[in-house]
Write a structure and sequence with these properties.
It is a single chain. The protein has 305 residues and is an alpha+beta fold. The protein has a domain at 126-156 and 183-224. The chain is 36% helix and 27% strand. The strands form four sheets. It has a five-stranded mixed β-barrel with strand order 1-6-7-14-13. Strands 5-4-12-9 form a four-stranded antiparallel β-sheet, with no helix packed on it. Strands 2-3 form a two-stranded antiparallel ribbon. A hairpin with a 2-residue loop joins strand 6 and strand 7 (167-171). The longest helix is centred in the last third of the chain and has 34 residues, at 271-304. The protein is flat.
Length: 305
């Protein structure tokens, strides 16, 4: 079902934090800002004490680099936790609508996933689905420099439906943030082996399991939303100009990307389960990040005394 370019839709006012929330944010910004400045001072001190470039290769064994990584990583964790907490607050403050009574603009709906026609087949696992996302990674390097490098990734863009007890609405998943629980992992890292159909798929998309240098260590991650799965969507409901005049939301309205409201989330978890996961991640990052930074700075100070 073709969907025309979306018209601008009214964007609801974002929830404003309370005075207590603003104070907490300012306090965290001050703390993390001080931590960032301290991390810069650590780097400056290390450069001052190590002027010769020939000495830098040996610093990989020096705990200073790990302390710097811990200090900076703590700041990054805090920033990510703040982003997750913002998403959590938006979900908590957005009322759930039924499809029949859903207004235009920013909405939250929940129901079951239905395909628009025949179900899709996921490229890696050959699973029937309405939506899929996959990532293919290769293990590269040697020793301590070994790391997983993403060589291919894709997500489906075909529309599908969300159905609740009052009706159906079309979901256009382009640009959506997908939080999915049904993930399959395939790898040929010892002692595993890739299934034949996965190896054939990799060859078909130009990512074979071997190159002229020899076998490649591959890891594939694929997550799907299957027909009938629970479906939660937070996004912008927009009018389909091609269906103007009809009262059927399944034809008149769709939920999809919108330039004036980039927040667009789809999940196969219930709202309750999704919020529980977001609270856990946000709490771990918001408290664990500053703790990691503080411990790294404290260890550096104690080492210099």
């Amino acid at each position: 079902m073709a969907v025309p370019a979306p018209r601008p839709a009214a964007r609801p006012a974002a929830p404003t934090p309370s005075d207590g929330g603003r104070t907490a944010v300012v306090a965290w910004v001050v703390v993390l800002g001080a931590a960032g400045v301290t991390a810069v001072l650590i780097v400056a001190d290390m450069v001052h004490r190590t002027p010769r470039w020939s000495v830098w290769p040996s610093l990989a064994e020096d705990s200073t680099l790990w302390l710097i990584a811990g200090a900076v990583g703590g700041v990054a964790l805090f920033a990510y936790g703040f982003k997750v907490r913002t998403t959590q607050r938006v979900i908590e403050n957005t009322p759930t609508s039924t499809v029949r009574s859903m207004p235009l603009g920013f909405v939250e709906v929940a129901g079951a996933a239905q395909p628009d026609g025949d179900p899709l087949s996921s490229p890696i696992g050959n699973q029937p689905c309405v939506f899929y996302t996959y990532r293919i990674q290769e293990l590269r390097g040697g020793g301590r420099s070994r790391r997983w490098v993403t060589v291919a990734e894709e997500r489906s863009t075909e529309p599908f439906y969300l159905r609740d007890q009052t009706g159906s609405v079309l979901i256009v998943p382009m640009g959506a943030e997908a939080t999915l629980s049904k993930e399959q992992v395939f790898s040929n890292r010892w002692p595993g082996a890739l299934p034949d159909h996965v190896a054939r798929t990799l060859r078909g998309i130009g990512s074979p399991t071997a190159s002229w240098l020899g076998p490649r260590t591959i890891r594939c991650r694929e997550a799907v939303i299957a027909p009938g799965d629970p479906l939660y969507v937070l996004g912008t409901a927009q009018e389909n100009p091609a269906a103007a005049g009809t009262s059927d939301n399944a034809a008149r309205i769709y939920i999809g990307p919108h330039p004036n409201n980039p927040r667009f989330l789809i999940s196969d978890r219930s709202e309750k389960a999704l919020l529980a996961r977001l609270r856990l991640v946000a709490g771990g990052c918001l408290y664990g990040g500053p703790l990691l930074t503080a411990l790294s700075i404290a260890a550096w100070v104690m080492r210099g005394t």
